[in-house]
Amino acid sequence: MKAIPLNSQRSGSSGLRAQLLGYSLLGGALLALLSAPLAHASPSHQPQPSLHVQAQSWVEVEPDKATLNARLWENTPALSTLEESDSSALSDARERLETRASELIEQMEATGLERTAIHAGSLNVYPEHVQGQRNEDGEHETLQRTRLERPITVELTDLDQLSEVLDALIAAGVNSLDGVQFDLQDRDAATDEALVKALEKAQHKANLMADSLDAELGHVQRIEETQSPIFQPQMMSMRAESDATGASQSTATSDYSPGTIRIDAGVNVVWALKGPNAPGRPGSDVAAQE
Predict the structure, then answer these.
(1) Is 152 exposed, middle or buried (0-12, 13-18, 19+ CB in 10 A)?
(2) Could you tell me the sign of the dihedral formed by the alpha carbons of 243, 122, 231, 184, in that order?
(3) Rounded Cα–Cα distance for residues 98 and 105 (Å)
(4) Which residues contact 72 (CB under 8 A, 6 or more apart)?
(5) Within a 10 A sphere around the Cβ of 157, how many other Cβ atoms?
(6) What is the DSSP code string of 228-258?
(7) Each residue of 197-241: pLDDT tens digit?
(8) How far apart are the C-alpha atoms of 287 and 213, rounded to whole Å?
């Protein structure tokens, strides 16, 4: 075996120590690089405090539009289910109905209404079962007839005409008068007004709370609707129906006051708070809710 010189062993040990020292220095440098971003990422400031406010408001407006719904109908003679229907009876009923509808429209125009404000709906035809006289067994016989019906809709933008138009409909002999629906010609303007009032109320509450806390409102951080404006047309219950003799009877009175329409809106607004006495701990905020 060949002996290794002593000086060679010492030289190898020095190289190994130098290599290990180099690895140690390199690892320390990498650790310093990795820990530097973490030191910068540590929280150095607290979140900005905020003020949360919820507010609701509404507006009440007088309607400026009314829609009247009426119906005209004609019936064919009631026959036993064993009898064959008469096609001429159906034609006669339709002719009578069309004549009445034309006369009704003429009477409406005579009140000063524009022709475009009067709408005659599609003809509806459907069978009806009615109770007949008692037979020899004491039971009521079931009879069948056909009803032809045409709806009539009148739209008013001048509510001063309402009383006159209702009286004209009743005088024209409508078979059914199904009430009046009051509405607004411009819904958007009314819903916008309700939303603006809710926002103004939220602003007022926020200023009041900030002043009480010796703080100052900063910029708005978030705005959202908690309740979209709800619009509900006002209904006036009124009904006129023909009796068994065909005469029109009405439960309507002469008072056609439309009342008001209420529109509700709600908002949620978040402001940043600033000032010497604003809450400063992490996640702190102030909230107000109706």
Answers:
(1) buried
(2) negative
(3) 11
(4) 97, 100, 101, 104, 149, 150, 152, 174, 175
(5) 11
(6) EEEE--EEE---EEE-TTS-EEE---S----
(7) 999 999 999 999 999 988 999 999 999 999 877 777 777 655 555
(8) 12
Q: pLDDT tens digits, residue range 161-208?
A: 898 899 888 888 899 998 899 999 999 999 999 999 999 999 999 999
Tell me, what DSSP letter sits at residue 2? P
- Tokens representing 39 are 């030191």
Q: Kindly report the pTM of this predicted structure.
A: 0.64
Q: What is the C-alpha to C-alpha distance for residues 252 and 167, in angstroms, rounded to an integer?
A: 10
Half-sphere exposure in the Cβ direction for 141 (13 Å, CA): 14
44 three-state secondary structure = coil
The answer to whether 191 and 231 have CB atoms below 8 angstroms apart is yes
> What totals of helices (H) and strands (E) does the chain contain, helices first?
4, 13
- Rounded distance, CA 1 to CA 21, Å? 33
Size (the chain), residues: 290
Residue 54: helix, strand or coil by DSSP?
strand
Rounded to whole angstroms, how far apart are CA atoms 283 and 290? 22
What is the longest distance spanned by two Cα atoms in the chain?
Answer: 143
Spatial contact of 188 and 196, defined as CB atoms under 8 Å apart: no
Torsion over CA: 169, 171, 177, 181 (sign): positive
Task: Give, in degrees to the nearest 5, the angle at Cα 248 between 156 and 257.
Answer: 35
Q: What stretches of the chain show up as alpha helix (H) in DSSP?
A: 6-41, 87-110, 162-171, 187-212
Judge whether residue 16 has pLDDT over 80.
no
How many whole angstroms separate alpha carbon 289 and alpha carbon 53? 6
DSSP-derived 3-state class of residue 175 = coil
Cα dihedral sign for 214, 219, 224, 225? Answer: positive
